[in-house]
Amino acid sequence: MHCEMILDEYHAKLPFYEKMKSIVTERLGACLDENKIVVAGLEARIKTEKSLTGKLELKGSKYQTLDDITDILGVRIITYYSDEVDVISALVEKLFDIDWDNSVDKRKMLEIDRFGYMSLHYVCRVPERMYHDPAMPQLNQIRFELQMRSTLQHVWANMYHDMGYKSDVEIPAEYQRNMSRLAGMLELVDEQFSRIRKEINDYRRNVQALVASGDFDEVPLNGDTFRSFLELKPFQRLADKIAAINQAELYEDDLMSYCHILMLMGMRTIGDVVRMRNENEEGAYQLALIQLAGTGLDIVAYSVVLQNICIVYILTQGFGEAGLERMFKLLYGESEYNVQRAHRIYEQAKKINLI
User: Fold this and answer.
1) pLDDT value at residue 112
2) Listed residues 190, 208, 243: the one ending a domain
3) Which range marks the domain in which residue 75 is found?
4) Residues 127 and 143 sit within 8 Å (Cβ to Cβ)
5) Is the pLDDT of residue 262 over 60?
6) Strands, E, within 128-194: which ranges?
7) Are 124 and 144 in contact (CB under 8 A)?
8) Which residue, among 76, 43, 77, 79, has the nearest Cα to 151 in the 3D structure?
9) Is residue 159, in this structure, part of any structural domain at all?
């Protein structure tokens, strides 16, 4: 009879749980977006009648009313990295009212084989400052559970559950040891992913600071440093000058594809790229005069600046049409037009004595 009363209350309150599910997921999603946090998953579910019935059969005497069951609405945030759980939990604490007495940090569990259960569980309420409807005051009283864990912890928990075991006691000892070893390995992988990401982020910040300092000879040329260098708009002055030939508008396209080309040309540092620009920008401008003369083009791609600098460098270094063809192949892939383009530019370069 007691369990039936709780089930009747469950049916009566389903609309409130549905509304709360919508509010919680919407506000959590917006909060993650505002803080530029990308997660592997944000999911929510309302416990089914079948699931609730099973829980009441096992632990019915523990609950006096439906409100005593905190996981009728369950929400889960799955992060890519384990250290993001702490970041997100801090945001959650600002969003919702937390029932600290019933919340638990399962990450502090010491057993190595409990990796899949190392989640942070908060029992929460929707505060009136977030949402309040006088017609539905229950929305600010009902509790829900919010679970935060990493992708690897989530995968482990799902696989463990899929094996059909509800406790360690049920797992034969011959398998328990291997499960424990695997859990330890996954925990180590989870930690290392977070560590490597932090080290990469630290490296990128150092690179940005080094590039910003202007000591370019100390900055090795690679994808990260070249991207930071481009943020300084190092080709803007020449780009504006070339656009002015036809009073054209500059189209800001991506120059990152030139990083590999510059490295193949022998550039080892950002300082090498700066010197290459300085030594070849006049030739690049003269070449642009011939390319744009009489065309009437009113839009010029920003990348034409670096492309022309590379063209001038290739030709003045004596690599000829073959060198131009190789560059165009890297930029545009295999195409018969690469040969025609290289020949046309080679002939244009002759007119300004680049060859």
Assistant:
1) 45
2) 190
3) 2-190
4) no
5) yes
6) 144-150
7) yes
8) 79
9) yes
